[in-house]
Amino acid sequence: MDDTHTATAPSPLAGFTVGVTAARRADELIALLRRRGATVLHAPALRIVPLADDSELMTATKQLIDCPPDTVVATTAIGFRGWIEAADGWGIGEELLARLRAGELLARGPKVKGAIRAAGLVETWSPQSESLAEVLDRMLGAGVAGRRIALQLHGEPLPGFVEALRAGGAEVVVVPVYRWMPPQDLGPLDRLLDAVAGGGVDAVSFTSAPAAASLLSRAEQRGMGDAVLARLRGEVLSACVGPVTALPLQGQGVETVQPERFRLGPLVQLLCRELPGRAKVLPVAGHRLEIRGHAVLVDEELRPVPPAGMALLRALARRPGWVVARAELLRALPGAGRDEHAVETAMARLRGALGVPNLVQTVVKRGYRLALDAGECAPDSPR
């Protein structure tokens, strides 16, 4: 019987902290991230206005009943279903369905088609690509001058879509299903912003453009806009579910990454590739060190490290193999004051957390160094 122990490979996001700004479907995204080892900070950047209380949606719906549209564009399944359910609740559901049945009904993709048919309607046309750009091209190709077009939104603007229709001579009625507003409790969002500015987050995920804009706006309100942007432009990864979601960030000079398929699963898979790919890997004292957000992989074994220890390790890893003076390490410690004894205490805890002796060497009267393997050198060190 073979009782040889085989080490289990670490989860791809183990040791990383990911901020989640989503309100809708946040539980699903958080579960996917935690299943892959991530520590999650959930900070809804927005809240959804309940449909039954949404006076703007009711007004737009009554306008369409009083003056029927020639064309209705349904963009999301959950938004279309919510619209019909809200109209039922207001006692005008059948009137709305009659107006939708009488005109042209365009569905963005298969899910929306399903919602339309579940309401007892039949779509006129739907693109295979699920692309709103293809919907727009078809409408403009057929001509929209003089037509009344209703566009069902789902919490996000559609840049250029409404403008293109109006430029073509159409009258556009926007149906604002699921509008967003700032969260009632700003505490979680403020804590996420503090963590971003303080270097305690490795990535922030965004699933809507309004959420990205809301996070940036709140940072500005708190007087920390520059600090947050500096982190987002640097070491903190901004992962967006799609290109529309990324627009507010890109407008502030923040580089973003997006999956090829604009879904939560591919977004998490992207993070599983990107974050480990950014981790620093060093051969130290015959071992493989991979420095992640709040932990270190030592020969593929995850070792959580306290914040002060991680600060020292990052300072040492910037110049692996070189001696780093105690005074410089002291400056790297968060809130350490001016007592070099704090460096010794944090160093002892770092060594204990790493669990392997001699990874960090003491150089008497000079400081500390990572015991980089012979023949290896830092990219900026002399040969």
Instruction: Please report which band the strand proportion falls in: under 5%, 5-15%, 15-25%, 25-35%, 35-45% or over 45%.
Output: 15-25%
CATH topology of the largest domain: Rossmann fold
Strand order of the largest sheet: 2-1-9-10-11
Structural class: alpha/beta
Largest sheet: 5 strands, parallel
In terms of per-residue confidence, which ranges show pLDDT below 50 for 5 or more consecutive residues?
A: 1-6, 378-383
Structure report:
There is one protein chain. With 383 residues, the protein is an alpha/beta fold. The protein folds into 3 domains: 17-46 and 183-278, Rossmann fold, CATH 3.40.50.10090; 51-178, Rossmann fold (3-Layer(aba) Sandwich), CATH 3.40.50.10090; 280-370, Arc Repressor Mutant, subunit A. It is built from 15 helices and 18 strands. It has helices spanning 26-35, 55-66, 77-89, 93-102, 110-118, 132-142, 161-167, 187-197, 209-221, 225-232, 243-250, 264-278, 307-317, 326-332, 341-354, and strands at 17-20, 39-42, 47-48, 71-74, 104-107, 148-154, 171-177, 180-181, 203-206, 237-240, 256-257, 280-284, 287-291, 295-298, 301-304, 324-325, 360-363, 367-370. The strands form 5 sheets. It has a 5-stranded parallel sheet, with helices on both faces. A 4-stranded parallel sheet has the order 5-4-6-7, with helices on both faces. It has a 4-stranded antiparallel sheet with strand order 12-13-14-15, covered by helices on one side. Helix 9 crosses helix 10 (225-232). The protein is elongated. Mean pLDDT is 89; it is low at 1-6 and 378-383.
